[in-house]
Amino acid sequence: MQTQIGAYPVELIEFNPQGERLIVLLHGFGASTFSWRTVTDELSELGHVIAYDRPGFGKTPVVTRTKAEDPYSLAGQVELLKAIIEDKANGRSVVVVGHSAGALVATEFALRFPEMLSCLVLESPAVWRTPPVPAWLGRALRTNKFENRAQRLLEGFSKAGMKILRDSFYDPAKLTQDVIDGYTEPMQNSDWKLSLWRFMTASQSNEVRKNLWRIEMPVLVITGDHDKIVKVENTFKVAERLLCHSIYLVPNTGHLAHEEDPKDFLRVVSRFIKKNS
Predict the structure, then answer these.
(1) Is 189 within 8 Å of 215 (Cβ atoms)?
(2) CA-CA distance, 153 to 133, in Å (whole number)?
(3) Burial of 178 (C-beta count, 10 Å sphere; 0-12/13-18/19+)
(4) Nearest CA to 84 among 11, 18, 24?
(5) What is the DSSP letter of 131?
(6) What is the pLDDT of residues 6-26, one digit of tens each?
(7) d(CA 11, CA 58)
(8) Pairing verdict, β 245-250 and 219-224
(9) 19 to each of 43, 45, 49, 145, 180, how far by Cα in Å?
(10) Among residues 6, 186, 233, 276, which one has the fewest Cβ atoms lying within 10 Å of its Cβ?
């Protein structure tokens, strides 16, 4: 369902709007709300669940960006999350669950607006990785000259994206054709390369690593014990800098632990949410 949030149309799904708490799910790079299909029903037993396609991904359409306001940037993604919570929380406690690059957005949000959250869940947080596009290069690539070539410059992304998806699963048998189709469906949109280009060239500038110790709310850090995309050692680097954290490794899973073993993921996450919100 496409919903207008502030100035931007966003593809958004929600469950149990009358739930006692608000739970917002943020997907990772190259994903969409499809990634959360394995856990939304069970999480909705705990509260009002919202998942949305972050700008640059899924079915959220291409939106205008300017030098002053860029919804594809980390700052813009944080502002969008803030607008959604302001619109949907209605005085309830709020939990944000961020996966991979979505966890970076969630952590930056927690640093900027701690009063808006009860607790935080970070799954395979892509916090310790260097942004794929350096800031100086991103500024150059945001010009119309390069943006007009996005279709050609991203010609090989489908192949690279499939490799990332394969590497995200520890058990290859769980990467079925239905899963592949769900991840690649947004590529049927003629604007998907332009949307992705705008995300990849947007500023992701932040000082999250330096400021993790400032987060005082309860944080659950969770990851697959065979994660190849965000190395487990880097997830531990994030966790050990948080003042009030617990950590859990989902056995025999990779980067998408919530998809490979949703039962174990939900067991740990549900207990954490009930205790801290």
Answers:
(1) no
(2) 14
(3) exposed
(4) 24
(5) P
(6) 888 999 999 999 999 999 999
(7) 8
(8) parallel
(9) 10, 8, 8, 48, 32
(10) 233
Q: pLDDT band for position 5 (50/70/90)?
A: confident
Return the residue matching tokens 């969409």: 32
Q: Which two tokens stand for residue 129?
A: 């990785």
User: Which stretches within 120-201 are classed as H helix?
Assistant: 135-141, 144-147, 150-153, 157-167, 177-184, 192-201
CATH topology of domain 2-276: Rossmann fold (3.40.50)
Hey, what are 97's tokens?
């669950």
Place of tokens 């939990």: 95
* Overall residue count recorded for the chain in this entry: 277
Residue bearing tokens 């190395």: 231
Please, which residues bridge with residue 51 across strands? 13, 25
Q: Which amino acid is at 153?
A: L
Angle between helices 177-184 and 157-167 (to 10 degrees): 130
Q: Where do the H-state alpha helices sit in the chain? A: 40-43, 74-88, 101-112, 135-141, 144-147, 150-153, 157-167, 177-184, 192-201, 208-211, 232-239, 257-260, 262-276
Cβ contacts of 26 within 8 Å, gap of 6 or more: 51, 54, 81, 96, 97, 98, 99, 102, 103, 105, 106
